[in-house]
Amino acid sequence: MIVSNIETVTVLVILLFGIPILWNAQKNGILKSFSFINLIRTINKSLKIQGIIGLILIPITWFLISINFKGDGIFAGVTYTYLVIGFFMYLPILGILNLFKLIMEKKNEKQKSE
């Protein structure tokens, strides 16, 4: 699928992924005391909100397409891009980051026990 208005779609997708992360980062105080493990925890918490956003985008897009809304191309592009990036880029990278977090936590436990 070729997305029309790629600039608008890109900005909206970045906002839809970024706002939950920034909101949770501010809520958890990660900007004051930064650590890699807290960053991954914040991104994991944001994943719930981002999943809900994805689930909300799908029926809205179907509805707008069914009523032949003029701007349905942008909504369809945002939904398509959001889901593709989420499933094929965001989730695998988050899985790898969680593996790194697990390794770092095990290392920290080992060092504390010694």
Features of the shown structure:
114 residues; mainly alpha; 3 helices
Please give the alpha-carbon distance between the first and last residues: 55 Å
Helix content range: over 70%
Largest sheet: none
Give the DSSP E fraction (strand runs of 2 or more residues): under 5%
Low-confidence stretches: none
Approximate shape: elongated
Structural class based on helices, strands and sheet pairing:
mainly alpha
Number of helices: 3
Q: Could you give the count of β-strands? A: 0
Describe this structure in words.
By secondary structure, this protein is mainly α. The protein is 84% helix and 0% strand. The protein has helices at residues 6-28, 36-66, 72-113. The termini are far apart.
Give a topology summary.
Elements: H1 6-28, H2 36-66, H3 72-113
Short description:
This protein is mostly helical. It contains three helices and no strands.
